[in-house]
Amino acid sequence: MKYFPPFTLELTLALIKPHAAKVPYVVKAIERKIIKNKFYIVKRSHCVMHLDHASRMYEEHKGKSFYKRLVEMMTSGPIEAFILAREDGIRTWRGLMGPTRALDAQYTQPTSLRGLYGLSNTRNATHGSDSPQSVFKEAGVFFPYFDICDWYDKDEEYFRNGYVRFCDETSVHVKDENDAPKDLKVKCD
Q1: Is 127 an active-site residue?
Q2: I need a surface site. Which of 59, 61, 84, 137 has the fewest CB within 10 A?
Q3: pLDDT (tens digit per residue) in 67-104
Q4: CA–CA separation, 71 vs 53, rounded Å?
Q5: Are 3 and 149 in contact (CB under 8 A)?
Q6: How far is CA 166 from CA 96, 109, 179, in A?
Q7: Where are the transmembrane segments (predicted)?
Q8: Which residues contact 91 (CB under 8 A, 6 or more apart)?
Q9: Does the pLDDT at position 39 exceed 50?
Q10: Sheet of 78-87: strands edge to edge?
Q11: Cα separation of 42 and 142, whole Å?
């Protein structure tokens, strides 16, 4: 059993699906919405999801009518993958995404990400982890060298206390040790 620390910030995996990720202004608009809603972008990757990764990520849907269509769509082109952090991150990201079904989102939450950029139930623009356990599993697919427990041990306190800066070159937030109080550095180093 993995240890889920009771810290203020919660990590979540966020994906921009292929049909939306291929449109630069959509990616930029979603990035702006992420930052506007006080998320930190901890990790980011522009990548193509391979069949084995998609099969592993969506294994709980295996045998359902939409499984094959979902896996094919997720492997159809590049995606944008993010690890985001903020208080109540999983619930907040899922709220920004809106309802799973794009048509429902367009009628009930037209300014949600799926309301704005979703095309169908499968091509609904975004994905988000639904639990801390899912974050561990899904983050490992896109960021195999990112150690969540290590981030909580070494970086979470910096992020929680605002000792971070946004790096324009990589479009991620990084901890800023120079502005942090010395006692914070001692605890985290």
Answers
A1: yes
A2: 59
A3: 999 999 999 999 999 999 999 999 999 999 999 999 99
A4: 9
A5: yes
A6: 21, 29, 14
A7: none
A8: none
A9: yes
A10: 40-48, 78-87, 9-16, 126-128
A11: 13
Structure tokens at 51: 């069949």
Enter the tokens of residue 42. 């901890």
Structure tokens at 73: 């769509």
* Token output for 132: 């801390």
Residue 50 in tokens: 């391979």
Catalytic residue among 46, 50, 61, 127: 127
Q: Which residue has the tokens 């979470």?
A: 156
Q: Is 8 helix (H, G, I), strand (E, B) or coil?
A: coil
* Sole residue written with tokens 């975004």: 126
Residues near 40 by Cβ (< 8 Å), separated by ≥ 6? 9, 84, 85, 86, 159, 164, 173
Torsion of CA 168, 170, 173, 178, to 10 degrees: -80
- 17-32 burial, b for 16+ CB within 10 Å, e for fewer? bbbbbeeeebbeebbe
